Amino acid sequence: MQNSQALQWLLQRRSSRAFLPDAVPDELLQQLLLAARRAPSGGNLQPGRLIAVQGRRRQQLTDALLQDFESQAPEQEDYAYFPRPMPMQLRKRQVAAAQALYSALGVARDDRAGRDAQFARNYRFFDAPVALVVTIDSHFGPGGYMDLGMTLYGLQLAAAAMGLGSCAIGALASYPATVRRVLELPEHQHIVCGLALGWADDAAPVNQTHTTRAPIAEWFQTLE
CB neighbours (10 Å) of residue 185? Predict the structure, then answer.
């Protein structure tokens, strides 16, 4: 069976962490956002907000987050991203993904400075032309996060269909109070993640990262 174009986008999508400086037209971004909001939503509640940070405010946010990261100042997250404790099977996947990333960059396992420098790029939104901060009202439960996740994936697939690259940035969730302070957001707006969006630099080594997915037998079963 020949793959449809949509299926090819699904199979080929990957996180981009290096971008060309070319701007993304506002009209194109609006189209992507409208397409993303077609994602399924329980009760059609459509939870979550996406905030584009630009210019002076973006620099202020990056500076504040980098200061937090460099000082290793602990901060209470709004939600638990990873399971606690992390099961060994999942820890192995996490380690393998990190190895794929740093191998593509040529950063050795014991090169702490190199790894920190790469991780710090999360807080610069990987220098993408579009930097988004994703929030959700604190009154939503897990179902709201599920719906918002489908919206974000819809946005990333729509971007791929238009030749754009993207990368979700969970690292922003490590410093929610800082994000709220800089962006002047109310306390009830929980910080979910960031999202970098733009024209991917396909020649950049970091964009050659390939991660694997668990075999279907691990997560799908048929009951009769």
Answer: 17
Place of tokens 């990987």: 126
Residue 66 within any structural domain of the chain: yes
Length in residues, the chain: 224
User: Is the pTM higher than 0.90?
Assistant: yes
Our count of domains for the chain comes to 1
Identify the CATH number of the domain in which residue 91 sits: 3.40.109.10
> Sign of the CA dihedral 11, 192, 138, 184?
negative
* Tokens representing residue 98 in the block: 């990190």
| Three-state SS at 168 | strand
Contact in structure between 159 and 132 (CB atoms under 8 Å): no
Predicted confidence (pLDDT) per residue in 181-200, tens digit: 999 999 999 999 999 999 99
- pLDDT, tens only, 132-182: 999 999 999 999 999 999 999 999 999 999 999 999 999 999 999 999 999
Give me the domain span that covers residue 91: 13-209
Single out the residue of 182, 83, 76 nearest to residue 123, CA to CA. 182
